[in-house]
Amino acid sequence: MKLSTFCILCCLSAGLSQAATYVWSGAAGNGIYGDSNNWTVNGAPNGYYPQSNSDTAIIGENAGTITWSTGQSYFGATNTVQIDSGSTLLCTTEIGDLNVNSFTLKGNSQLIFESSNALGLGRDFTLNFGTFTAEEHGSWVATNLPSFWTNWKTVTFVGTLDMNNLSGSGTIELASIKSSQLGGNLNLDLSGLDITGNNQIQADVTQVTENDIIKVLINYETVPEPATATLSLLGLGGLLLRRKRQQPLPHV
């Protein structure tokens, strides 16, 4: 009997430790990440919320702002967090570390780090923007942080800029991060951003610092087609010639 009970407890323990995919339902109506009533697994609540390095969290579209704070147990412990368009995940601390392996930012989603005292990075992580456009792209904001302990960590940016609907010129801001950092500066690996241009579009990714804020920007510009450029030059030449002919002759 004792052995059977022990086996049952071991099985239950093993089941609880398995990786789970949690989908945000928001059923509790309070926007709290650490409330199990806001999450489902396989379509139903299981009494837990994402809280281990094996868990995946999916926040669907237009979920509003979801707050993940150090007032909630297991703050910062999730393997992967996906934030869909129209949703915001606010990671806020008094003092605490984030230990997430990757964030996926879809559409116009937003990831915000803020703290009343100190927020630290416990590990490297990936920011995956998927395929994005100038009008619809995720963003990461980490500026309202009195003490930002980056601890020599690396944030890897990945994603592909959709060139099909670009026109004119512009700038896409993917991230704004406090540049005053503690424990070793943050390394931003931007090599995973695919911004390969074509004959019509030129694009480049840059990292600039302005007023104690590091910004990750993509600048793009539409290049006129050769025939269009030639016609523009011919038109300009014709206009100049016409003006020259219209100038009055000097009086003798």
Average pLDDT score? 87
Class derived from helix and strand content? mainly beta
Instruction: List the secondary-structure elements in sequence, H or E.
Output: HEEEEEEEEEEEEEEEH
Query: What best-fitting shape do the alpha-carbon axes yield?
Result: globular
Q: What proportion strand?
A: over 45%
- Given as residue ranges, the uncertain stretches (5+ residues, pLDDT < 50) are 1-17, 227-233
First-to-last CA distance = 126 Å
Report the major sheet. 15 strands, mixed
Helix content class: 10-25%
Number of helices: 2
Total number of beta strands: 15
Radius of gyration in whole Å, from Cα?
26 Å
Can you lay out the helices and strands and say which pair or pack?
Layout: H1 2-17, E1 21-24, E2 39-40, E3 56-59, E4 64-69, E5 77-83, E6 87-105, E7 110-121, E8 125-132, E9 139-144, E10 147-149, E11 154-161, E12 169-178, E13 187-194, E14 201-210, E15 213-222, H2 226-246
